[in-house]
Amino acid sequence: MAAGNKAYAITPEAKQYIIENCQLTSVALKADIKEQFGVDVTESAIWAHMKRARDAAEEVTRTADSFISQRITENVEGFVDVITNRYQTEIKRIGDILDGTCKEVTIMEDDGEGNKIASPHQYGIYAKLFSQLAKDYMALRPQFPTIDITTNSREREEALLSMFSDDELVALLEKVRIVEGERAIIKQPK
To answer: Which residues partner with 109 through β-bridges?
Structure first.
């Protein structure tokens, strides 16, 4: 600090200014505080208040994001049928347009010889739309966990087995027993 300049404690007003403007640099805040509040504060003091303000803002953002995510998750079940039905309807409609069977929209043109052919430009647009709709629709399906079963890891076996209900495990074991029995029959000498 230059001779003649004295550092003062940060006033409550200056602290509030730092909190409200924590996206600024400590250098910019120091100049603003000096100009607006007539107080000369060290950058390290400003930085400490900025860090607390930024941490608090980040926590508020995380909390809000979590709340919004939870609300969407809770409400999405009510829209699953609406969304999937809309996708199915649109995919069928675009498919019908591409096939030339849609009565509302046609991309067919007369080729000059009395034949109807699809306009290449329009066909390309609808084919691209169909492809994107189908891709988006397929992305809605639940993601199933995949397990690497290439090694004999006990944890992987437990993870794999935990994916089945007791009834499914019994049915699976029965199928294994049948297959093993068939192998035994095939291997028997004649």
So the answer is: 117
Task: Using alpha carbons, select from 50, 36, 42, 31 the residue that is nearest to residue 9.
Answer: 42
Share of residues in the chain with pLDDT > 90 (%): 14
pLDDT of 186 over the 50 cut: no
Q: What is the pTM of this model?
A: 0.40
* Single-letter residue type at 111: D
Whole-angstrom Cα distance, residue 110 to residue 67?
Answer: 56
* 12-20 vs 26-37: helix crossing angle, rounded to 10: 140
Q: Which of 89, 94, 88, 92 is nearest to 127 (CA)?
A: 94
What distance lies between CA 112 and its chain's CA centroid?
A: 50
**CB of 97 within 8 A of CB of 105?**
yes
Q: Taking residues 79-83, report their average pLDDT.
A: 85
In this structure, is the dihedral angle defined by the CA atoms of residues 16, 21, 26 and 30, taken in order, positive or negative? Answer: negative
